[in-house]
Design a protein that fits this description.
Elements (H helix, E strand, L loop, with lengths): L2 H19 L1 H5 L59 H4 L3 E6 L6 E4 L21 E3 L7 E3 L29 E4 L3 E9 L6 E11 L4 E12 L8 E13 L3 E16 L7 H4 L16 E19 L15 E20 L11 E2 L2 E2 L15 E20 L9 E15 L4 H4 L5 E16 L3 E13 L5 E13 L2 E14 L3 H4 E3 L4 E3 L5 E12 L4 E11 L2 E3 L5 E3 L4 E14 L2 E12 L10 E14 L3 E12 L5 E4 L4 E4 L10 E10 L2 E8 L12 E3 L2 E2 L4 E10 L2
Antiparallel strand pairs: 1-2, 1-5, 3-4, 6-7, 6-37, 7-8, 8-9, 9-10, 10-11, 11-12, 12-15, 13-14, 15-16, 16-17, 17-18, 18-19, 19-20, 20-23, 21-22, 23-24, 24-27, 25-26, 27-28, 28-29, 29-30, 30-33, 31-32, 33-34, 34-37, 35-36
């Protein structure tokens, strides 16, 4: 293990030790968990009790009391009294959530133990209609839906890898009655180009309020095609305490991604015009290029609640009383990226384009070799240290019409480093430091189960990114027909933000730019109608972006001179006829300027399957076919040197139906996975299976795997 990793572990231990030591002291201020609340009629271990059992467990009149000596020095374990969780949530055996580093809130999530979408093994294909990607696991991807495309304001190079990364906002936390361990393993293809996906999760509660979890995930492939190997490894450690007044989280995240880069095929003809027996026979532009990206994140979050009236035995938690919460959060991120290649490893161009049976590129993959004519070694580094102090007012009831009102201040310290031309002479390695100060606020509330609303605002009054502004407002109205809800939700957002540092400042062997872009602005409106009982959903979104920054056909960033409008309509309907399920997701999109914001007109994901109990309450089977399709459009290109998708106008891509056949099963606590990916290869008299310019999807391959959950 490197010295850097030892330093991280030492720092983590020094921070966690005092954190754990104060838990019992802090909770000593909380009231007794037992009172008149019906939920309190359970002991700390979840056993039902009725009144005060004392030494007469059967509560019979005039019964003889048990006079056996008891250990009165043993401390009684407190139940989970946190204001974050309602009685229904506490009653669950296991549940999970994510934290909000800016506000004293959480977002409930699910623990994946079902067969639902278990056959979807690529993480970027699980949401909506999926992503366009380079063809293999571990490679960059970009969502087909414009509203799902991530925007990384910090370390933009990681944006195409968003679906693999752990962050403090998506790292899960767990509360489990018994220790939970999940182990998953998936493999595909022959050993020569095998693909594998390994996940290990362990979550355990020390007390009902205090727990920890460790998640390790590694995935990658040796590559079906030349120089296509990837290896993504992610690690997350989290410690949480959710007490009656005090809440605390400490976490550490490590992400590392290694990708060999082949630059795409030398000519699409090798995929569409001929059928080579072996995938490794297909020639690609780069043979020894690769990207390495690493990220370390340490974060901690603390809040303490002060009730505005005296707590009584009836107050199981502080969720139902007026209160003020004071909190602090800290987050440190560091990113490093290294790109390497050689001139000898680049496919030599032929001005005549080669021959009909052996086409070659007519121009070099990279036009410029600024600093070294034989090899590249481009390194970039970025770190950010964030401190936030906030208060949250709970005027009446946390679930009231005005549930919480938040206000906070934050300071971000940014550090950027890359070699610039003058550094080769001066030896400067100091980098660039920038600081920003911002204020933010939020409010949210609800009326029973019928109406939810919230709003938030963030503004940078001075420093780096001065006058940046983000504002959002959302509301949800639910109408119930008996026990069947129909919900109408809407969201409005406006943002004004400085460009990413790397879109304005970049020096490398192949690309150099120094831009002075204007602030980007975007107005977003979306509306959704959902009816869970009939498995139906309809959505509409509208986005108007001004001064939009994008990467042009030459691979360098540009800024649009006119606003761009993007409109989308999303439809989802799942039919069920006995054991037969017919699930449909369809997205239609229109862009007023495809050169700035390219989107396919129609994207669809269909899943048809049968699901039934092969052995009742023991073995459940799911057998089906998944299909993905989008209409032709000028899809993205990808440049390994910058690690970014760019807008190309060379070739329209799409119109290819991608089909997968699968069988999944759940046997007690084990889920089993069998799949023939890209079943449709050679089915439709076309081999145009591209989603990104010159990057073919993988050939047909058989996959298998399992996931096993342990609860002890």
């Amino acid at each position: 293990m490197s010295r850097l990793k030892y330093k991280w572990l030492a720092a983590l231990f020094l921070f966690v030790a005092p954190f754990c030591a104060v838990l019992d002291r802090t909770e000593s201020f909380a009231q007794s968990p037992y009172g008149n609340d019906p939920f309190q009629q359970q002991d700390p271990f979840g056993n039902n009790i009725s009144g005060n059992l004392s030494a007469n467990p059967f509560m019979t009149d005039n019964a003889q009391q048990d006079t056996t000596a008891r250990d009165t020095t043993k401390k009684e374990r407190k139940p989970l009294e946190s204001y974050f969780f309602d009685n229904e949530t506490r009653a669950q055996k296991n549940f999970a959530w994510n934290i909000d580093m800016s506000k004293n809130r959480i977002r409930m999530t699910t623990i994946d133990t079902l067969l639902t979408d278990f056959q979807v093994d690529y993480p970027f294909l699980k949401k909506g209609v999926g992503d366009a990607y380079l063809g293999n696991l571990g490679a960059p991807s970009v969502p087909l839906a414009y509203y799902d495309r991530p925007v990384f304001r910090d370390f933009q190079m990681a944006q195409p890898l968003y679906s693999y990364l752990y962050t403090p906002e998506n790292a899960p936390y767990y509360n489990v009655k018994k220790p939970l361990t999940q182990v998953g393993y998936l493999t595909a293809g022959q050993r020569l180009y095998a693909e594998e996906n390994i996940t290990v999760l362990h979550a355990q509660n020390i007390t009902p309020s205090t727990g920890f979890n460790i998640t390790f995930h590694t995935m990658g492939t040796k590559g079906i095609y030349t120089n296509q190997a990837t290896r993504d490894t992610d690690f997350s450690l989290g410690i949480s305490h959710n007490g009656k007044r005090y809440t605390g989280y400490v976490g550490y995240i490590f992400n590392t991604i290694r990708m060999k880069e082949n630059g795409g095929v030398t000519d699409d003809w090798y995929i569409t015009g001929t059928k080579l027996d072996e995938a490794f026979e297909v020639p690609f532009m780069l043979s020894d290029a690769q990207n390495l990206m690493q990220n370390h994140t340490f974060y901690t979050f603390h809040s303490y609640g002060i009730p505005l009236r005296r707590l009584t035995d009836d107050d199981f938690s502080m969720a139902g009383v007026p209160a003020i919460y004071v909190g602090y959060s800290l987050q440190y991120d560091r990113w490093h990226r290294l790109y390497t290649d050689t001139y000898a490893g680049m496919q030599a161009p032929d001005p005549d384009g080669g021959t009909a049976s052996n086409p070659l590129p007519t121009s070099p993959f990279y036009d410029n070799w600024y600093f070294n004519a034989t090899a590249s070694r481009d390194s970039t580094f970025e770190s950010k240290f964030s401190n936030r102090l906030f208060v949250q007012l709970q005027p009446w009831d946390r679930n009231g019409i005005v549930g919480t009102v938040d206000a906070g201040v934050g300071v971000d310290t940014h550090h950027y480093f890359q070699f610039q031309p003058e550094d080769f002479l001066s030896g400067n390695t100091r980098g660039v430091n920038r600081n920003s100060f911002y204020v933010y606020g939020a409010v949210e509330g609800k009326f029973r189960k019928y109406f939810d609303w919230n709003g938030d605002l963030r503004y940078v009054p001075f420093g780096y990114r001065q006058n940046d502004l983000e504002a959002n407002a959302s509301a949800k109205l639910s109408i119930y027909f008996g026990e069947h809800p129909v919900s109408l939700s809407g969201h409005f957002g406006y943002s004004l933000r400085d460009p990413s540092y790397w879109s304005e400042n970049y020096y490398s062997n192949h690309f150099i730019w120094h831009n002075a872009f204007q602030k980007e602005n975007e107005t977003v409106l979306d509306v959704h109608l959902t009816a869970p009982t009939v498995n139906a959903e309809a959505g509409f979104y509208q986005s108007v972006a001004g001064n939009k920054i994008y990467y042009g056909p030459n691979g360098a960033p540009r800024q649009a001179s006119a606003p761009v409008s993007v409109t989308g309509i999303y439809l989802r309907k799942d039919f069920r006829i006995g054991i037969l399920h017919l699930n449909h997701r369809v997205l239609m999109q229109w862009s007023t300027n495809q050169e700035v914001v390219p989107v396919p007109l129609v994207s669809a994901y269909l899943s048809y399957f049968v699901e039934f109990d092969a052995v009742r309450d023991v073995l459940r089977l799911k057998i089906g076919v998944d299909g993905r399709y989008n209409t032709k459009y000028y899809a993205f290109g990808y440049n390994p040197a910058t690690g970014q998708f760019y807008n190309q106008r060379e070739t329209m891509i799409g119109g290819y139906p991608m089909l997968d056949f699968y069988v999944t099963a759940k046997w007690k606590r084990m889920r089993i996975f069998l799949k023939v990916a890209h079943l449709s290869q050679d089915f439709f008299n076309t081999r145009e299976y591209f989603q990104v310019l010159h990057y073919p999807l993988n050939r047909r391959v058989f996959k298998m795997g399992l996931s096993w959950s342990f609860y002890d």
